[in-house]
Structures are given as C-alpha cells and as structure tokens.
Amino acid sequence: MRMETFKKINRPSKDEQKLAIESYDALTSAIEQLKSEYLEIEIEETQERIKIPLSALVFLGEILKAMSQGKPFSLVPIATEVTTQKAAEILGCSRPHLVKLLEEGEIEYTKIGKHRRVRYEDVMGYRKNLKKNQKQNIIDIMKSDEELGLYDS
Q1: Do the Cβ atoms of 64 and 30 come closer than 8 Å?
Q2: pLDDT attached to residue 53
Q3: Which residue, of 68, 94, 116, is where some domain finishes?
Q4: Spatial distance between the Cα atoms of 148 and 151, rounded to a whole number of angstroms
Q5: Between residues 20 and 149, the one the model is more confident about
Q6: Is 47 left (phi over 0), alpha (psi -120 to 50) or beta?
Q7: Residues with Cβ < 8 Å from 142, sequence gap 6 or more?
C-alpha cells in the first residue's frame, strides 16, 4: 500500500469490511494481553519481523474498527497543511465553496505562491463548529414546530 492511499478518503469494500471485523476482534484481544510499549510483529507471508510501538498497533485497531463499520477514513498527519481540494473533501463541499469560505475569513489559510494551504486542525475545527450549529438548528426547528403544534412529541 503506497502513501497516496492515505491522501484520499477511502471507503472500504464489503470484503475489506468483513476482514476488518475479524481482524479488529483478534487485534484488540491481542493488545489487551501485551505488556510492552514496543513490540515485534511478524508478517506471515514473508516471515519478516518488524518492531513497532504499541501506540501504532492501537491506531491500526482504530482503522480496522472504522473499516469494519464501513466508515470512510483518511489518514492525515496532524499539524500538516492540506490543499484546498483535500480540505473540501474533508468538509464534503466543492473546492470553489471552500475557497469562498477562506476568502470570507471563515477558515484561516496561508498562501504559497498562488496556492492556498489550510491547516488540517483548522479544517477540523470548522467542521466541528458546523456540525454543532447544524444540530442546534435542528433543535430550534423542532421547538418551533412543537410551539406551532406541528410536531407531536
């Protein structure tokens, strides 16, 4: 698997989802029995042994859990800058809409030559606030409907 795989959002196939379910259960069970912070794993097919930190194995478990649930996932190192296209994918909007948000000051960005770069954590912060506002709007609409007698609770 090449690094480009982790630069886009991936939705697991049904076969990957099934395998992830089985692997996740086995991995979490194995992790519970570990006592060391650094471990050695073996790739059965090549008999190659690799030393990795426990935290990386735990993170692999989180990826398998997301895959087993059929959730799309993306691996982006924190404290990195992303392109406007990647930021738009994260927010689920078009790139022109994202550029509009940047130019309106909704999300901070920097310019490198003619290219805009957005900090990943700023995109995620905007997304979190967006979801929070959406949830509040739904609650407000439901309250309004109840007051008008349009909604029976």
Answers
A1: no
A2: 92
A3: 68
A4: 8
A5: 20
A6: left
A7: 151
Beta bridge partners of 39: 52
Q: What is the pTM of this model?
A: 0.49
List the beta bridge partners of residue 41. Answer: 50
CA distance 99 to 7: 20
| CB-based contact 123:91 (threshold 8 Å) | yes
Q: How far apart are CA 72 and CA 69, in angstroms?
A: 9
Segments forming the whole domain that contains residue 16: 3-68
Q: Which residues of 88-117 are buried (b: 16+ CB within 10 A; e: fewer)?
A: bbbbeeeeeebeebbeeeebebeeeeeebe
- Both 95 and 136 in one domain: the answer is yes
Residue 22 in tokens: 């089985």
